[in-house]
């Protein structure tokens, strides 16, 4: 069983930056592909970014490519989402997710979820 706890959300002006963190419990963190999803009010939960178990491969939704960076520190059991050049449309609750399988862009592929952290981008 893996427990995930996100932090780092908040209110930021458009064009600003935030770094989200997701701390995982357990000793098998390096066995999990990790991802970030987000959900705005009235919207479906959508894929943001994915990092492989080794950390050597990353994938991004086109809407965040070039602005967001996902990374992981297995020594600290933590995955990060660095968000730059934030836009109003990035406002959402951001969720960390993990799976021992490949993962992918569908939220249905993930077994473990954090409680979410709110990111609000203002004009």
Topology of helices and strands:
Layout: E1 4-7, E2 10-13, E3 18-24, E4 33-39, E5 46-51, E6 58-60, E7 68-73, E8 78-83, E9 92-99, E10 112-113, E11 117-122
Parallel strand pairs: 2-11
Antiparallel strand pairs: 1-3, 3-8, 4-5, 4-9, 5-6, 7-8, 9-10, 9-11
Describe the structure.
The structure is a single chain. With about 120 residues, the protein is mainly β. Helices cover about 0% and strands about 50% of the residues. It has no helices and eleven strands. The protein has strands at about 5, 10-15, 20-25, 35-40, 45-50, 60, 70-75, 80-85, 90-100, 110-115, 115-120. Strand 5 (about 45-50) and strand 6 form a beta hairpin. The protein is globular and about 40 Å long. It starts with a strand and ends with a strand. About 35% of the residues are buried.
Summarize the structure.
0% of the residues lie in helices and 48% in strands. The protein has strands at 4-7, 10-13, 18-24, 33-39, 46-51, 58-60, 68-73, 78-83, 92-99, 112-113, 117-122.
For this entry, give a set of tags.
single chain; 123 residues; 0% helix; mainly beta
User: Strand tally, please?
Assistant: 11
Classify the beta-strand content into a percent band: over 45%
Give the SSE string: EEEEEEEEEEE
Indicate the low-confidence ranges by residue numbers.
none
Largest sheet, if any? Answer: 7 strands, mixed
The percentage helix is under 10%
Cα(first) to Cα(last) distance is 40 Å
Mean pLDDT: 96
Coarse shape: globular
The structure class reads mainly beta
Tally of alpha and pi helices: 0
- Backbone CA Rg: 13 Å
């Amino acid at each position: 069983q893996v427990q995930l706890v996100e932090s780092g959300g908040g209110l930021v002006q458009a064009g600003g930056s935030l770094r989200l963190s997701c701390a995982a419990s357990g000793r098998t963190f390096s066995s999990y592909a990790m991802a970030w999803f987000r959900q705005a009010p009235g919207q479906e939960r959508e894929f943001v970014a994915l990092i492989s178990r080794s950390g050597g491969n990353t994938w991004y939704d086109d809407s965040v490519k070039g602005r967001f960076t996902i990374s992981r520190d297995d020594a600290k059991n933590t995955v990060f989402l660095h968000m730059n050049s934030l836009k109003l449309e990035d406002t959402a609750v951001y969720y960390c997710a993990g799976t021992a399988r490949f993962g992918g862009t569908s939220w249905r592929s993930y077994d473990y979820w954090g409680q979410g952290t709110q990111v609000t981008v203002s004009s």
